[in-house]
Design brief:
The chain is mainly α. 84% of the residues lie in helices and 0% in strands. α1 runs antiparallel to α2, α2 packs antiparallel against α3 and α3 packs antiparallel against α4.
Amino acid sequence: MLFDPKLNSQFISYCLVGAVITVGGLLTSLLLIWLGMSIYVANLLVYLIGCVVSYVLNSKLTFKKNYSRKRALKFFISIGVAYIINVLLIYLTLFYQPGAKYIAQIIGNVFYTLLVFSMNKFWVMK
């Protein structure tokens, strides 16, 4: 990867798109939680919006792919799988540390981001 300019550019673009979506989503979800919304509802709302934005931006900017039903379906399947894992991590964190809702959100978000990147790179956008 270090010597492949196209791959490096793609990786940097993915990270930038992901960073904007992740930070925006994390801040939005933390704000919604602070305003009294359930952590699970906040998570779902932020991810529904974030996954659409992510598909659009990563298709066009990162992977230079046209939109397709097949690719969109695979993308949303990967988002669903990652979301389930995210919720499980939040649940487990809160099970062992009931007052750690902000930490739980951050842990879930980190794993979600890493998992979605891997699935996009090696399955969805191939």
